[in-house]
Design goal:
single chain, alpha/beta
């Protein structure tokens, strides 16, 4: 029987790349996202390629909606083999003492609380079955703070902490836990961060060839498809001319 991967935030970027990569690798999929039209379009495309796909439209910040969506899964769809906690975002690039409280709340509720909710609702059945894999999409930003990004960096530091903690908590089982930490990836990320300011978003990627969502999806799939006795605990993935979260060489 085919394995099942559940991917949050699947409507664009890394999540969409993961959906396509897992479908090509023979997985059936449960895809979640907030944007129904984009999610349905992606699911239709993947079904046309031969994958079985279930779509769940909800926001991971909404715990009741998340619980209801996951409770709707029936039969074999309840036996999730791989959970990719991808849904996440950055908002703003302000000094901490000038930051937008609503932006902070959205980042914390999505990047930390949403990830924890998904984990809490899905991992018990993995433990019960003594199999499964949780792959969290962290960030190089979780390694050290940078100017204007303290709260976003804090949320990704939290992703590392809860990922490491979960790995400890399930060490007595065959459940694997992975943290993938991308660097500069050209997706919709910066447009969201700058609230739709396309010029400012485009400037983030000037002078360097950034990673793509598909690049990160390849790493996620590699971790998922490693032999069962192999646990890829953490992977830092950077563009060639990026040294860390703040050191980037740009060509003029």
């Amino acid at each position: 029987m085919k394995k099942i991967a559940l991917i949050t935030g699947a409507t664009s970027g890394i999540g969409e790349g993961c959906a396509r990569a897992f479908a090509r690798s023979g997985y059936d999929l449960i895809l979640t996202g907030r944007r129904k039209e984009l999610l349905c379009q992606l699911c239709d495309n993947l079904r046309a390629s031969g994958a079985e796909v279930v779509s769940l439209v909800f926001d991971v910040r909404d715990r009741k909606a998340t619980e209801a969506a996951l409770s709707s899964l029936q039969g074999r769809w309840r036996d999730i083999d791989v959970l990719v906690n991808n849904a996440g975002l950055a908002l703003g690039l302000d000094k901490e003492y000038e930051g937008n409280l609503d932006d902070w709340e959205t980042m914390i509720d999505t990047n930390i609380k949403g990830l924890l909710t998904m984990t809490r609702l899905i991992v018990p059945r993995m433990v019960e079955r003594n199999r499964g894999h949780v792959i969290n999409i962290g960030s190089v930003a979780g390694d050290a703070a940078y100017a204007g990004g303290s709260v976003y960096c804090a949320t990704k530091s939290a992703v590392k902490a809860v990922t490491d903690g979960l790995r400890i908590d399930v060490a007595h089982t065959a459940v694997r836990v992975t943290n993938i930490k991308p660097g500069l990836v050209e997706t919709n990320f910066s447009r969201v961060r700058f609230h739709g300011d396309n010029d400012r978003a485009d400037s983030v990627y000037k002078g360097i060839e950034p990673l793509t969502g598909d690049d990160i999806a390849d790493v996620v799939l590699y971790a998922a498809n490693a032999p069962e006795h192999v646990q890829i605990a953490e992977v830092l993935v950077l563009a060639t001319h990026q040294a860390n979260g703040t050191v980037i060489h740009r060509e003029n």
